[in-house]
Design brief:
Blueprint lengths: L17 E7 L7 H24 L3 H24 L3 E7 L3 E6 L5 E6 L5 E7 L3 E9 L2 E4 L6 H19 L1
Antiparallel strand pairs: 1-2, 2-3, 3-4, 5-6, 6-7
Helix pairs in contact: 1-2
Length: 168
């Protein structure tokens, strides 16, 4: 995220120059290697825990240990797949462009006039900013739904300042 720097003697930037750009991605606390390490450790723990039950003849209990691990593995795979989602925002003096790519690869693009678009926010006193959207006439596009309240508020401040600067 960056803003324009224009000194008193400079001419304004041409209309197609990007004034603000941001790429929003879901946060994941574990890297790919960390995820693999955690799953390996949990798999070994499940295996070691299942062996005594299997040796005692209670093999269904051992199967449940394997089933628990399989469900956990699938949840981590889904979580990591959803981290591929991205929202890109570009603002110039003549256009606001929003591109969203879902975790499955579906792309949606929206173009707005920066003079007619407004930021719509919803806040909860206890939780913080719960929603951020761009609104132009009846069209509304939510931004950063996967961000935390603090990250969403920080983006809204930076983007709102850039949008106000373009309108001046």
């Amino acid at each position: 995220m960056h803003g324009p720097t224009v000194s008193a003697g400079e001419a304004p930037a041409p209309p197609e120059t990007t004034v603000f750009s941001a790429a929003l991605r879901p946060h994941r606390s574990l890297s790919r290697g960390g995820t693999m390490l955690l799953l390996t450790l949990l798999g070994l723990i499940s295996l070691v825990s299942a062996i005594p039950f299997i040796l005692m003849g209670a093999w269904p209990v051992g199967g449940y240990f394997g089933l628990d691990f399989a469900v956990l593995y699938l949840c981590f795979r889904l979580n990591n797949a959803r981290a591929r989602a991205i929202e890109e925002v570009w603002l110039s003096r003549i256009e606001l462009f929003v591109r969203k790519v879902t975790w499955r690869g579906a792309v949606t693009e929206r173009r707005f006039n920066p003079f007619w678009v407004r930021l719509k926010t919803e806040e909860d006193p206890d939780y913080g900013m719960t929603r951020l959207a761009l609104v132009q006439r009846r069209e509304e596009v939510e931004l950063g739904a996967f961000l935390g309240p603090e990250e969403r508020a920080e983006f809204a401040r930076a983007f709102g300042a850039a949008l106000a600067g373009v309108r001046r």
